[in-house]
Amino acid sequence: MQQKKYYLETVNPTNINSKVLHNYLLQDFDRIELLPRFVLNRNLKKGVMKAVYLTDGQEKYGYAIYQQVAAFDGIFISYLAVRSKHRGSGLGSELMRQLKSLSANGILLEVEDPDKAKGEQDYTNRLRRIQFYERNGLHLNPNIKINSFFVPLRMMSNVDKIDDYDITFYRQLYNRIWRWPLGSVFVRKYT
Q1: Cα distances (Å, whole numbers) of residue 171 to 36, 61, 155, 187
Q2: CB hemisphere CA count around 96 (13 angstroms)
Q3: 140 within some domain
Q4: pLDDT in tens, 25-39
């Protein structure tokens, strides 16, 4: 049996493609975690954010939405998911491997803080996500916990120097997406 060859396909930021991508996000993430569709669409069209699908040319197995970060010449992943019917098949690790090839200098992303989970199942899910990223070479930043738009998050990366960045750095990432200084208001450090 021939092994499938996976690659990243860049999402062309047309209105219909943004709508399809947003529908995937609605299936895979809680609504509170999502950027409004018009913000996502604007950022994709202006090139502030980029979106890719993990595909074999026939089917879309997963996707990631990210922005380039000049401060460390890497990428900040806002959303990453494998389509539900393909989860548990190693495609999440393949997607991470492919994303690493886009950014030789590093990846930064957020995960929900397991210490702030709402119940045992939520705690287990959050911990499972962190363990997935750790298996794929990322580590938790021990120095920063942020509350972003009322969601407690931890930062993970595969870049050692990223631990040196402070809350101002994270606020700038959000301000770039929103195009307003909302990060200064809605991104706070917590202990």
Answers
A1: 18, 31, 13, 6
A2: 17
A3: yes
A4: 999 988 888 888 999
- Domain presence at residue 2: no
88 burial (CB, 10 Å; 0-12 / 13-18 / 19+) is exposed
Q: Can you name the residues that pair with 145 across neighbouring β-strands?
A: 154
Residues facing residue 53 across a β-bridge: 9, 63
Neighbours of 114 (CB within 10 A): 17
Here the CATH number for the domain that contains residue 50 is 3.40.630.30
Strands ordered across the beta sheet of 60-69: 7-10, 50-55, 60-69, 74-82, 107-112, 151-157, 139-148, 187-189
Q: 111 near 153, Cβ under 8 Å?
A: yes
This model's pTM is above 0.85: yes
How far is C-alpha 141 from the chain's CA centre?
A: 15
Confidence label for 174 from pLDDT (cuts 50, 70 and 90) = confident
Q: Which residues contact 33 (CB under 8 A, 6 or more apart)?
A: 151
Rounded Cα gap, residues 66 and 116, in angstroms: 25
Q: Specify the number of domains making up the chain.
A: 1
* Closest C-alpha to 62, from 27, 32, 30: 27
How many Å from the N-terminal Cα to the C-terminal Cα in the chain? 52
Domain of residue 142 covers 7-189
Residue type for position 76: F
